[in-house]
Amino acid sequence: MLAESSTIIANDDLYPIVTAIGCCILTTYTILPWSLNLLNLPPIQVIFRTIRKAIFFLPAQLVLVAWLFRRAFISTKWTAYNIKNANDDDDDAVESILSAVIHQVLIPIEHVLQDQFHQQTYYYSTSLSVAKGAVFLCSDALGLFLLYAVASSLWSLYRTSWKEFKGQIMSAMVDFLSELPFVRREIEKEERKMMADLESSLKDPNRKVTRTLPEHGTEANVLIADLQKRGKAEDMKWENGMVSGTVYCGESSHTDLLNAAYAAFSLSNPLHTDIWPSVNQFEAEVCAMTASFLNGGNADVVGCISSGGTESIVLAAKAHRDYFGRRNGIRKPEIVSCYTAHAGIDKACDMLDIRNVKVNFDPKTFEVDVDAMERAINADTIMIYASAPNFPQGVIDPIEKLSNLAVKYGVGLHVDCCLGGFVLPFGRRMGYDIPCFDFSIVGVTSISCDTHKYGYASKGTSVILYRNKDLRRAQYFAYPEWTGGLYSTPTIAGSRPGALLACAWASMMSMGEDGYRERAKVILDTTQSLAKQVASIPGLRLLGEPKSMIVCFGSDDFNIYRVGDAMAHKGWSLNSLQRPACIHLCVTIPVAKHADRFVQDLKEVVQKILAENGGANKKEGGTAAMYGKAGSLPAGPISELLKSYTDCMLTP
C-alpha cells in the first residue's frame, strides 16, 4: 500500500490535468460570473466570502486529520508487527487488544476504503493518478507545507501589481546594499551632509535653543512676551494671504472667540465625563451638527471627533476591518483606493496590517478608474476609499458609481471629505455643479470631515461619521480586564484636549449655516475665477475640473517646479505635487482676498521662464532639483530622505 501511495503522476496524465485546471479557471472567471449576473445572483467574490466564513478551516482540518490517521495507522501496524514477532515477555493482554483493534477495525476499514477508491476511479485514469499524487503528498507533512507555500505564493503574486512587485524588488536590493560597509559609510556621509543643508535652510541660525530645564523658573510675563513676539512674526507669513491652505479663516474676531473658548476649558479632558460633562456634550453636538448637512436625511448617522483628518481615516479603516472583516471571516483584509487618495489611508493600512490595493485614475479627469477598482475587489476586500475632493487636483470621485460597487460586493465605502466637508454641502445647496457624495447615497458607510479646515475651528479636530451605531462601535477600543479598572475609548488617544472640542463647538455655533454658506460662496467663486485665468496663461494647463477649492496646474513646456520656486521667491507658499508633476493652490479666505496678486505674479513668473527657453540650459535647484532626484530613485532611499527631514524637524 505504501508503494502504491507514492506513485508519481505519469507524464501522459499531465495534459488532461492542465486542461482541467484551465477549464476551471475559465469557468470561474468568465462563464460563472456571466451566469451569476444573468440569474441576478451575488458576485462570485461575495459567494466565496460567505461560504468561506463557515468552512475556512475545514479543508485544512480534513487533510490534517487524514494525514494524522494515516501516520497513526501505519505506526500501529508496524508496532503490532513487532509485537507479534518479537517473542518477548510483554503483557499478553496489551498484545491482544492491539491485535484486535488492528485486525477487527483498522484493516477492514482500510480494505473498504481501498475498494471504494478503486471502484470510483477505475475508468478515470487521470483522477486515479491525481488522487495517488494527493495521497502521496498528504502522507508527508512536508508535502502539506509545500502545497500551502506554493498556493500562498501564487496567490500573492497574482494579487501583486507590477508596480508593487518592482518596488519590493528595489527595496530588497537597497536594503541588501545598504548593509555593505562601504555603502553604509557613503550613505551616512550623504545623510550628514543633507542634515546640515536642511538645518541651514529650514532653521534660523540665530534662534535660541533650550536643551535642558532652566535652573530657575522663568517669569510668566517674560514667557508671554517671548511667545507673542514669535507668534506675531510667524503669523505674517499667512496673514498676507499668500499661503496655500494652512490657515482657512484667519478673521481676527473669530480667532479671538477660539482663544476664549480654549481658555475656558484649557484643563478639561473628555475622558473624565464626571468632571467635564460639557466637553462630552460639545463633542456630541458637533457630530450631530456635522451629520445634519451630510446625513442625506438619515437620522441614524453618528460620529465622534478625532485629532485630525489622518486619525479619522485610520479610525474608519479600523471600524471597517472589525465590522466587515470579522463578520465575513476575513483574515487578511484589503482596502481598494486610488493613487490620488490621501496618504492617510496608506498610514492606516500600515498601522492596522491591511493591504492597500492601489488603482489608477483617469489621466484626463483624475477621477478614480471605476472599472479598475471593480477588478481589484475580491473576497478579502473590506472597504472602498473615495475622495470628495482629492487633495492633489481637487477632483471629486464618482461616489455614486463607487456606491454601486460597494452594494454589489457587500463592502464599505469611505468618503474622504476632510477638505471639502464644510464647503461642498453648502455649495450644492446654493446650486453649484457639485455631484452627490454624502449619506444620501446608499453605499456610503463613513465620511471624514475636518472641522479644523473649512469648519474654521482650532487645529486638532476632525469629525468621522458612520451610517449607524454598529459601525461606530467597531472603531472603539474596550478592555475590561485591566487591573486599573474598566477601560474604553472611542479614538486612538486616551486623554484628549477638551479645549479643542470646545473650540470646534464654538466655531460652528458662531458661524451658523449662513456663515458657512457665505464663505463657501467666496471659496468656490474665487476658485472658478482663478482656474479660468490660470488656464489662459500660455505655457500652463489645468489638471482636473475645479469644482471645489483646488486650482491645480502643470506644464508641457517647462519644469513646473521652477514656477513653484519662483513664486516662493515672491512670497507665495504653494503645494508641489508629483505623478504627474504639478502645483496647486488651495483657496482659503485669506487667499481669496489676494487672488488678483496671485494671477499677476504667476503671469510674470511664467513669462520669465518662457523667455529663458523653458530653462532648458539652466541648472535646476530648490524644489525642482528635489523632485527631480525623487523621480529618479526607488521608494526606499526617498523614504530615508523623508525620515531625515523629520529628524531635522525634531531636533532643537
Task: Please tag this protein with its features.
single chain; 652 residues; alpha/beta; four-stranded antiparallel sheet; disordered N terminus
What this model shows, in words?
- By secondary structure, the chain is α/β, with parallel strands linked by helices.
- It has 24 helices and 13 strands.
- Helices cover 57% and strands 9% of the residues.
- A seven-stranded mixed beta sheet has the order 1-7-6-5-4-2-3, sandwiched between helices. A four-stranded antiparallel beta sheet has the order 10-11-13-12. Strands 8-9 form a two-stranded antiparallel sheet.
- α17 links the parallel β5 and β6.
- α19 crosses α22.
- The chain is globular.
- The chain starts with a helix and ends with a helix.
- The N terminus is likely disordered.
Spatial separation of the terminal alpha carbons: 76 Å
Query: What percent of residues are in strands?
Result: 5-15%
The geometry reads as globular
Tell me the number of strands. 13
Order of strands, widest sheet? 1-7-6-5-4-2-3
Oligomer: single chain
Tell me about the largest β-sheet: 7 strands, mixed
Structural class: alpha/beta
Structural Rg: 32 Å
Mean pLDDT comes to 82
Low-confidence stretches: 1-15, 56-60
Helix content: 55-70%
Number of helices: 24
